[in-house]
Amino acid sequence: LSICSRTVEPLEYYRRFLKENCRPDGRELGEFRTTTVNIGKCSITTADGSALVKLGNTTVICGVKAELAAPAVDSANKGYIVPNVELPSLCAERFRSGPPGEEAQAASQFIADVIENSQMIVKEDLCIASGKLAWVLYCDIICLDYDGNLLDASVFALLAALKNVQLPLVTINEETGLSEVNLKQKNPLIIRKHPVATSFAIFDDTLLIVDPTAEEEDLATGTVTIVTDEEGRLCSVHKPGGSPLTGAKLQDCITRAITRHKEVKKLIDKVIKSITPK
User: Fold this and answer.
1) CATH for 28-275, among 3.90.1150.10, 2.40.420.20, 3.40.50.1220, 3.30.230.70?
2) Which residues form the Exoribonuclease phosphorolytic domain (predicted)?
3) What residues does each domain of the chain span?
């Protein structure tokens, strides 16, 4: 398989591999790229929690900043979670500097939906004093190197960064009505669910490959992302157009996503255990 055919006829080049149940990078169709996570060592000194995730060459960093604010009038007992995905021009040639493009906006919306649907953080848990004070969590997810499967890496980085957040104890002084922050007493954020995303590319309307690279995404006839939690519950199915999936194929994806969840959760737990002071 010459390099020439990869540049001239990339789809044909891929098909020759897929027929043999493998991919040009040597992976099997259902095999993920090497996945690593660093938690809290990302040198974002201003963040209250941070994580760096690598999925093959795709590299995503997430920093969480916690600030105090008054709750909204119609949800007096709830805090806020504000996710934002950035795809700067440095991460791939396809992205331009300037305001967020379509892909970044869609990814931010996807992350917001995952937070909401999975109930990973319950907004009531972020309330300090009903109608008076609540936490706002700004979750900035920045792609440093883009090689496909942004959503899996982003959900993973978000979860790992949130697990790293320690919030100081905040009380409201009865006499003055002012908030008092005790930085000596910090508590971890309450994470109620651990959502994990698993993405697939669909080739020629029928063939599913897991964890697609940027090149595979470009050649695919569709993509689908399945988000599950630790109980195997389906939190989200994200399918932006493209080839339709049969019920059986979708069930295959869900089964694979549940297995992937166990792998990712194990990895996070292992890293957190290694950084927890003995």
Assistant:
1) 3.30.230.70
2) 31-168, 195-258
3) 28-275
